[in-house]
Amino acid sequence: MTPEGVEVRGTSIRIWFLYRGKRCKETLKGWKATPANIRKAGRLRAVIVSEISGGTFDYLARFPNSKKARELGNAASLSKSMTVAELFERWLKTKENQYTKTTLRSRKCAIKTCAKILGEEKLVKNVNYEDCLNLRSELFSGKTTYTLRRNTKGRSASTVNNYMTVCSEIWMFADMSGYVSANPFKKVKYLPIDESGPDPLEYEEFARLVSHRSISEQEANLWTVAVYTGLRHGELCALAWEDIDLELGLIKVSRNLTAADYFKLPKTRSSEREIALLQPAIDALKRQKAHTFMGAAEQIDVYLREPGKVRKEMCHFVFVTKDDKYYSKSGLAHIWDSCMRRSGIRRRTPYQTRHTYACWMLTEDANPSWIASQMGHKDSRMVMTTYGKFMPSQSGSQIDKLNSRFSAVPHRCPTSSREG
């Protein structure tokens, strides 16, 4: 008869015990199933149970090659042998229900690259400040390792800073979990970045874009709605006729298409909004009705903010491809570049349609708080800091406006009638 908690499986011996509410089974490597070893296994199991009861059990020390030990071992024990790859995997597991699919995918890409540079098998406790600096340098000047696009030498400063931010967050997690005693990334400075402000279309450029003979009516409608609503491109891709009330002149923004090609709620709660349509946008949408209003509806899943929650919607998309499919964000960018090239307008990033809306509204003296609500910002601070500049071509008219307003203001105080 075998002792309690001891199992004989063929020629090997396995013991089991309860640890942290879980039933753990460990095969005793190199122990042949002899009567003497079976009795010895029973004594070992009794010692382990006693250590668990007394709070002194070190799972990883007892079974250094056990996967269960790495899962349940205490922080002090894990810190002695945890590798960079294991730390990244542990951190990522804690984020699975917190991040969106798009964010999770980008984080996986970042940590895969950083783990390769730091050394996947390098012990976490041995990663120091110098390693962090070398990582930053290699990210900035080393060759990329993409699998689905062309590789280049080096990455942009903003990308490097994003990767370093992820690593700093991971080491903060390790510090707070007791795996390390300090975060070596904490004192690493970010690479400086030259801020590039908005580069909106001029009125004349936009007029040339939408009236150029090479631009189709649907393309003109698309960019007119984009420029006169300030919609994010994911929101523009997800725009359906069910969201539009042309009689009231309103668009209800209730979904967004991600770069990973799935629908979710808009970026923030303030982004779930109603946009008051300007007349050029209304006219463009009326023209667009002839092309897509009677198209077939498509059932889609919209991921909600609570993990695992999804709602189903039937949508007649406003802007579709030649195959009657909604535009992807990359597809929309491709069309934008093509329209810029065909109309002979200086190339800008597609997101300049949103910048154009904000700058035009500010140029025409629209209230910044109203602009912020239309664009889905929480308050006007973002509008003022990002878009608080006048378009160069409008500087003269702005001076005319100010001179007109101030013409009625006295230039000097009247001379006193009293003698001094």
Please report the first level of CATH classification, the CATH class of the largest domain: Mainly Alpha
Percentage of helical residues?
Answer: 40-55%
Q: Tell me which CATH architecture of the largest domain applies here.
A: Orthogonal Bundle
Strand order of the largest sheet: 6-7-9-10
Annotation field: number of helices: 17
Structural class: alpha+beta
Outline type: elongated
Mean of residue pLDDT values: 88
- Count of folded domains: 3
Summarize the biggest pleated sheet. Answer: 4 strands, mixed
Identify low-pLDDT runs.
416-420
Can you identify the CATH superfamily of the largest domain? Intergrase catalytic core
Rg from Cα: 31 Å
Terminal Cα span: 124 Å
CATH topology descriptor of the largest domain: hpI Integrase, Chain A
User: Beta-strand level of the residues, as a percent range?
Assistant: 5-15%
How many β-strand stretches?
10
In terms of quaternary structure, the protein is single chain
What are the secondary-structure elements, in order, as H or E? EEEHHHHHHHHHHHEEEEEHEEHHHHH
Report on the structure:
This protein is an alpha+beta fold. It folds into 3 domains: 6-73, no CATH class; 84-177; 203-395, Orthogonal Bundle (hpI Integrase, Chain A). The chain has 17 helices and 10 strands. The strands form 3 sheets. It has a 4-stranded mixed sheet. The protein has a 3-stranded antiparallel sheet with strand order 1-2-3, with helices on one face. β2 (12-19) and β3 (22-32) form a beta hairpin. α5 (84-95) runs antiparallel to α6 (101-118). It is elongated. Residues 416-420 have low confidence and may be disordered.
